[in-house]
Amino acid sequence: MVADRTFTTKRAAEAWERQQKEALGGGSFVSPRQSRTPVSAVATAFLAARSGQVAPHTFRTDRDNLAALPPKFAARPVGSVTEADILALLTALLGTRAHSTVSRIRTTLSALWTWAVRERWTTTNPVRGVRMPPGAVQTHDGAPLTDSTLTAIISSQRERSPHGALITEWLSLTGLRWSELRALRVGDLQDLPFPAARVLRAQSDGYSEKAPKSVRGRRSVPLVARAHDIAREWAAGKGLTDYLATSATGRQLRGTYFRRAVAWTTTAPGHTIHDLRHYAASTWLRQGIPINQVATWLGDDPRTVLKVYAHVLGEAQDLEALRRLNSPLPSHSPECTSRHDPQEGGRPEEPSKAVPNQGKKCGDGGI
């Protein structure tokens, strides 16, 4: 005997016995004792097996996501969790977390149950059939960065750290992620056929270098004149393999030290460094750059750009509509209507001296 279970009817017991024999014969048998293991215990074993097999940043994300699970859910037997349970969990998490954060938690849970099925902790992956519930795709603590707000931020930071203010300005012009700026080398700059920065790698604070987080991998981001000038200032006197943007003391950038140098929480309250990337993307779209091109510069999927920046794309239509509403209405005065319809034939009538304004062109003082 490899498993036992109590049933209220003989028919149910026989059906269960047949299922267990079929699973045992097909190699998919899971011990009921294994399936009763709490989710938290399976998660611990999952993380132990995953250590060293994935990037450190991925491992840390999985660890943090699993640690964020509600205690009641973590105590559930792994084999008892259903698709309805997963959907309820994700929906509840959306009440306190951003859509992107919950989406990453779902990815971790799916990896957990995929591993659990392979290791015979349970028979099915309940996460796979559950789509993300609707919710806000992008959330910000403060209002989106505007031209005037960014100007004030840079001006305030320049008083504290001129060097740090240039970093803020450059990120707002290029849309690079912080990790991508940290890993950028002097040799990644190009002048021909146009000034640009080649994004070849990324390095988050405290982690090793890796490929950039881009849909198409490596990419080039064109540099406007101001961004090109700043980059050349940074590159002066450095070798091709030296970091392009460094701290005021010449060391590789660190987010903690940068925020401290420019007093970020004071000079840019309610905003994050990542908001500078959103500002760059919004500026490009407002200047008429096509979505696909903006997506290429950002290293994102065009569908993501369309979803995140839909409000920016709608501004052009609103502005055009407002321009039309503010334009003078065409005159409908009878005096401005032609006395002759060419499609009906005949000769135009002579303007009558008895009728004032007859023969005046539309717009010459009509109502």
Automatic annotation (TrEMBL):
Residues 337-352 have a biased composition (Basic and acidic residues). Residues 326-367 are annotated as: Disordered. It holds the Pfam family Phage_int_M. Gene3D superfamilies: 1.10.150.130, Intergrase catalytic core (1.10.443.10). GO terms for molecular function: DNA binding. GO terms for biological process: DNA integration; DNA recombination. Keywords: DNA integration, DNA recombination, DNA-binding. Residues 140-324 form the Tyr recombinase domain. Belongs to the 'phage' integrase family. This is Site-specific recombinase XerD.
